[in-house]
Amino acid sequence: MAAASGLASAARALRRWADAAIAAGLYAVAAAVGLASVAAVNAQGLLSGEEVSVSLLDVVAVPGRFQPTVYATNFAGHVQFWLFSHLDPSFDLFYGRTWKALAMALVAPLVHATLRRRLGCGRGPAALGALAAVLLPGVGAVAWLATENGLEVVWGLAALLLATSQRRVWVLAPVAAGVAVSSYGAGLAWAGAVGALVAVRLVRSPSRVRHLRAVLAASAAGLAVVLVPLVWWEGGGRIVLGGGSVGSADPVAALRSLGGELFVRGESYYYFTDAPALGSPWLAGVLAVAVVAGTALRPRLWPWTLALVLTVVLYALSGGVLGVRRAVAIPVLVALALAVVVDVLARRRAPLARLLLVTAAGVAVLGPLGGQYLDIRDGWRTGRYALPRDFDFPIAEGATMAEEVTALTGRLNSGAATYREIAAEREGERSLAMAWLLAVRRGGDLTGLATPEQIGDLVAESPRCTADCRPVPGRP
Length: 476
Prior knowledge:
Layout: H1 2-42, H2 49-64, H3 75-87, H4 95-104, H5 107-118, H6 123-135, H7 137-143, H8 151-163, H9 173-183, H10 187-204, H11 208-232, H12 251-263, H13 281-297, H14 302-316, H15 329-347, H16 351-382, H17 401-414, H18 419-425, H19 428-442, H20 452-461
């Protein structure tokens, strides 16, 4: 009896180690894909305006305690890029893309863990779902983008993994959900799914009174994560809804646009490819069917399906400039549903038939997605999908953006120009933030450079500052 029990324990440990090794391999593949995208896009030598704002200006604003614009409402996202900037040993203008790609690569092992440990899938279908999740264009096109979009998916997946745990750590899920919301507004959908699941667990738990106290404390902590920027930003600020509002929403037009981007063609703001977010019309159709079939065949999929539904609802009720970058959860969650369906179809077959079915599904899905990824990456490298020059930062003919920042910094260091003169000839906040952050992270000369406080002053004085852009008390 003892020997049998020991063998069973050893077998379980071996399975856990095997799963961990596969998850590590999936992360390595996803990271390699993301970093290859970064290298391809960096060949254009340009940072887009929002990338400068998020990975540089917002990072300067965190210690400076000023909210740069009414759109800078994803405080946990700002803090994550601030941490990335400290971790990078060879900091440069494009560091944010590298670290965003490494962070988004976590989607692969998180999807794998969800499929294996929560949805009972075999290793083959779980690996298929994880790889599809990172190769679908709706994920790959934002995985390298040095903005907050997509970070909420990493935290949302982690939150649902916590919420479905059989250990008592499940009560901490609201904290991770709060980070998802603060990372990017689309995290509200993940928080809604986590809230529904936690409520169901409380109702079903025989020890719900004891658990209720812990859940309430974790929920308060998650809410504090969302609300903390109102205290951190001097003079107040805005949270979560900087990119749009319910008042300006057109649900019918929004859903029509989203359907087109998912199934037909990607052509929205800051989505630098024309590929549909779900790969192709035929694959999008298969994935849509998989969501319905997967939830029906394996009902425990419902929390992830709910997150998908809430993402669509949130998208429909959002205003501002819409785009698939607000719905990165959809390709991730449909890939997860596809893996569930493949597992259900393969589960009761003989080992050889099961292997052939999973392999065929992998070739049918991952083959076209891999070829499409290579084509998209080539488009970024060659400039076929050109990044926009969408803020006032003139670059001398024949120079790169990095060289222009170096020249600007040299003018400030030498006293040839003051930071206010620089601000008068170009967009001062973003330009000066690039110069200061590069110098301070590299241990360079800060002489003449605008400090975070002075950049905050420029923000308050800027003609782009609206009534919601609140100047810091005591400053002009």
